[in-house]
């Protein structure tokens, strides 16, 4: 049961169509780089084309959007991580043991969250990926760095009270806990009233999850921050807004609370 | 007639000497910064070339790295920025009802980053791989936009002034978080200025209605008071001027001396070195610059970029959102201004990063807050509202990089 409700990606269908800003006249564009360039890799500081005369204005039409071809196995320099680099990094990071770690469902092994390209200023440094996990046993965020050249895990860093955005799996679990809890009664009644239908499945909702960290003065879920907690922004597809931003699901403590 | 102090031959010599002291990224460095899909390299109509690498981070959204500028008379691009990202976006409501951290609790990348339709983008759209790696979604818009009059000077006849229309290279992505759609924008001008902005559009949050002292009535009559709120944003900017890095930070203040000259009050400008990590605030006539101790322009002046802040509402309810600008020693794991999420670093906010280290490689954290009092016009869709700052070149080139050839002899007081 990976995605029992409409995924966040499906929110896109009603998130489009926004004109982008103070529309000024777009000019003809002379593309000399990017995917339309013929040389495989333009080198900054390298063979830059002779600058055009300041008086001459290029008359080309804007180039068509370049097509992103199949992802290469590995990137160059500051390229984004390719899907296969991510696969290798994630596999290597998970293969290294992390004693006692459990995921959001209580199963062995930490919960995978996200990845990033490791920042570096070293000109010829190998590309490295950082893979982030959450260990629900220790309530700690884990970062593992993987050298993409050697495949070796080079570093493991853990810290408490770090709460990155929830994964889809974590949001799914939080929804499940919420719907099984008495605090969802009001929501179900509001849904019935707004749509005339009974709420029987998370499929009836578009849900975005966000991590909740209690500020010192917050009340209702003050363990959150130390614990991993999720709040929801919900939308009934093509329907009304039912506000449940006061609900907090504590995934570490397996409890549901209402902020006061 | 203007004074002509240089012969045409001398002017040509000056042009060919235009690149002084090539830095590692100017001449020697053959490192391939990124492949073609990640490279933006564009010459603007006035001959200025900007190039950089872009990618999308799941939390910070659009990431720009290795940003370099080449004026029409420069032989090679000269590095300006090592990287720039948004580093937090707090959205607290005046009612105290909610506070969102849109970067560290949601993120601007991943599913939150919107695919761009042709109507979203007047230029070229670039894609990122999604899912298994063979599906792409177009998320980056790259366009060249008119910027109006870049400079104007009376010429020899009224019909022929020295006048130039400028243009900007504009990069944009759009991230939808909740009901808001945020535009991450970088505007690279042909004169070397970099404008960094966040635009907010989409829709106001539904149901977030409150009392008259915390909102504004946007429906019929005096009933629906849409809640006032902040968009308090941080950016993290790491310079790499001339490819050398290791910049110095200077604060400049100008104050009246209390004395008078022949016709007016005398003001004095003084420099304070920001040699150790510091959280700083604006004051009348105060400004900061990040200056290379190595890379010089053709006048022998050290290259720098100046921070220019405009409209800015500080959110004083948190100590960490109070400083207007913070300079910290570079650490790759200090990624977010607040709620840092890299376990490799002990500190989680700019206040903890600022712990007395000497600045030998400064990172600049810029906070720009926008207090949003909704108005009738915000429905619907909401017109874009903008917040951001400018990075202005100061002595990056010895003269106006767009100057016409016959003004190159004007450099200094005109007495040789
Ligand atoms: Cu707003």
Automatic annotation (TrEMBL), chain A:
<feature type="transmembrane region" description="Helical">
    <location>
        <begin position="12"/>
        <end position="33"/>
    </location>
</feature>
<keyword id="KW-0472">Membrane</keyword>
<keyword id="KW-1133">Transmembrane helix</keyword>
<keyword id="KW-0812">Transmembrane</keyword>
<feature type="compositionally biased region" description="Low complexity">
    <location>
        <begin position="47"/>
        <end position="66"/>
    </location>
</feature>
<protein>
    <recommendedName>
        <fullName>Tat pathway signal sequence domain protein</fullName>
    </recommendedName>
</protein>
<feature type="region of interest" description="Disordered">
    <location>
        <begin position="42"/>
        <end position="84"/>
    </location>
</feature>
Automatic annotation (TrEMBL), chain B:
<keyword id="KW-0479">Metal-binding</keyword>
<keyword id="KW-0801">TPQ</keyword>
<dbReference type="InterPro" id="IPR036460">
    <property type="entry name" value="Cu_amine_oxidase_C_sf"/>
</dbReference>
<feature type="active site" description="Schiff-base intermediate with substrate; via topaquinone">
    <location>
        <position position="180"/>
    </location>
</feature>
<dbReference type="GO" id="GO:0008131">
    <property type="term" value="F:primary methylamine oxidase activity"/>
</dbReference>
<dbReference type="GO" id="GO:0005507">
    <property type="term" value="F:copper ion binding"/>
</dbReference>
<keyword id="KW-0732">Signal</keyword>
<feature type="domain" description="Copper amine oxidase catalytic">
    <location>
        <begin position="50"/>
        <end position="402"/>
    </location>
</feature>
<keyword id="KW-0560">Oxidoreductase</keyword>
<dbReference type="InterPro" id="IPR000269">
    <property type="entry name" value="Cu_amine_oxidase"/>
</dbReference>
<dbReference type="GO" id="GO:0048038">
    <property type="term" value="F:quinone binding"/>
</dbReference>
<feature type="active site" description="Proton acceptor">
    <location>
        <position position="102"/>
    </location>
</feature>
<dbReference type="Pfam" id="PF01179">
    <property type="entry name" value="Cu_amine_oxid"/>
</dbReference>
<keyword id="KW-0186">Copper</keyword>
<comment type="similarity">
    <text>Belongs to the copper/topaquinone oxidase family.</text>
</comment>
<feature type="signal peptide">
    <location>
        <begin position="1"/>
        <end position="27"/>
    </location>
</feature>
<feature type="modified residue" description="2',4',5'-topaquinone">
    <location>
        <position position="180"/>
    </location>
</feature>
<dbReference type="GO" id="GO:0009308">
    <property type="term" value="P:amine metabolic process"/>
</dbReference>
<protein>
    <recommendedName>
        <fullName>Amine oxidase</fullName>
        <ecNumber>1.4.3.-</ecNumber>
    </recommendedName>
</protein>
<dbReference type="InterPro" id="IPR015798">
    <property type="entry name" value="Cu_amine_oxidase_C"/>
</dbReference>
């Amino acid at each position: 049961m990976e995605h029992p409700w409409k995924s966040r990606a499906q929110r896109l269908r009603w998130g489009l169509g926004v004109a982008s800003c103070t529309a000024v006249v777009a000019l003809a564009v002379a593309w000399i780089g990017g995917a339309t360039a013929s040389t495989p890799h333009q080198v900054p500081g390298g063979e830059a084309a002779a600058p055009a005369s300041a008086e001459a204005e290029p008359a080309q039409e804007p180039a068509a959007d370049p097509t992103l071809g199949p992802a290469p196995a590995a990137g160059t320099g500051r390229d984004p991580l390719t899907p296969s680099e991510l696969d290798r990094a994630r596999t290597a990071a998970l293969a290294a043991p992390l004693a006692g770690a459990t995921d959001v469902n209580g199963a062995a092994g930490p919960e995978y969250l996200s990845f990033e390209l490791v920042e570096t200023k070293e000109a010829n440094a190998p590309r490295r990926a950082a893979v982030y996990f959450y260990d629900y046993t220790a309530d700690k965020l884990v970062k593992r760095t993987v050298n993409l050249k050697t495949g070796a895990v080079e570093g493991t860093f853990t810290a408490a009270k770090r709460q990155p955005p929830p994964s889809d799996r974590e949001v799914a679990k939080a929804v499940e806990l919420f719907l099984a809890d008495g605090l969802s009664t009001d929501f179900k009644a509001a849904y019935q009233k707004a749509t005339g239908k009974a709420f029987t499945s998370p499929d009836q909702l578009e849900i975005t999850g966000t991590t909740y960290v209690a500020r010192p003065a917050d009340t209702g879920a003050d363990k959150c921050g130390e614990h991993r907690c999720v709040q929801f922004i919900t939308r009934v597809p093509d329907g009304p807004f039912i506000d449940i931003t006061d609900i907090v699901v504590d995934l570490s403590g397996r409890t549901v609370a209402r902020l006061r | 007639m203007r004074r002509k102090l240089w012969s045409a031959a001398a002017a040509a010599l000056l042009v060919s000497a235009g690149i002084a002291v090539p830095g590692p990224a100017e001449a020697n460095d053959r490192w391939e910064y990124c492949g073609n899909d990640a490279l933006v390299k564009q010459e603007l109509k006035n001959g200025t070339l900007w190039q950089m690498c872009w990618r999308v981070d799941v939390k910070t959204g659009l990431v720009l790295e290795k940003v370099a500028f080449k004026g029409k008379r420069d032989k090679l691009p000269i590095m300006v920025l090592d990287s720039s990202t948004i580093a937090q976006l707090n959205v607290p409501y005046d009612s105290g009802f909610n506070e969102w951290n849109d970067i560290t609790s949601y993120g601007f990348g991943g599913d939150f980053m919107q695919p761009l339709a042709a109507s979203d983008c007047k230029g070229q759209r670039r894609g990122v791989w999604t899912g298994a790696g063979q599906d792409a979604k177009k998320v980056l818009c790259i366009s060249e936009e008119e910027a109006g009059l870049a400079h104007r000077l009376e010429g020899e006849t009224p019909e022929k002034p020295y006048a130039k229309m400028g243009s900007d290279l504009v990069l944009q992505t759009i991230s939808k978080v909740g009901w808001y759609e945020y535009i991450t924008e970088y505007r690279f001008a042909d004169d070397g200025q970099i404008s960094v902005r966040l635009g907010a559009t989409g829709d106001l949050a539904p149901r977030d209605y409150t009392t008259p002292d915390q909102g504004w009535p946007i429906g019929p009559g005096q009933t629906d008071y849409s809640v006032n709120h902040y968009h308090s944003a941080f950016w993290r900017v790491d310079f790499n001027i001339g490819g050398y890095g290791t910049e110095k930070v200077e604060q400049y203040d100008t104050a009246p001396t209390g004395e008078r000259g022949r016709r007016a009050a005398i003001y004095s400008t003084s420099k304070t070195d920001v040699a150790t990590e510091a959280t700083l605030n604006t004051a009348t006539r105060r400004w900061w610059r990040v200056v290379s101790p190595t890379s010089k322009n053709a006048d022998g002046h050290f290259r720098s970029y100046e921070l220019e802040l405009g409209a800015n509402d500080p959110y004083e309810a948190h100590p960490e959102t109070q400083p207007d600008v913070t300079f910290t020693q570079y650490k790759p794991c200090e990624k977010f201004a607040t709620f840092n999420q890299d376990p490799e670093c002990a500190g989680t906010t700019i206040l903890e990063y600022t712990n007395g280290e000497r600045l030998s490689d400064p990172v600049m954290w810029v906070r720009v807050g926008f207090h949003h009092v909704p108005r009738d016009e915000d429905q619907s869709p909401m017109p874009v509202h903008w917040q951001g700052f400018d990075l202005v070149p100061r002595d990056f080139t010895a003269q106006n990089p767009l100057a016409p050839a016959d003004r190159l002899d004007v450099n200094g007081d005109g007495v040789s």
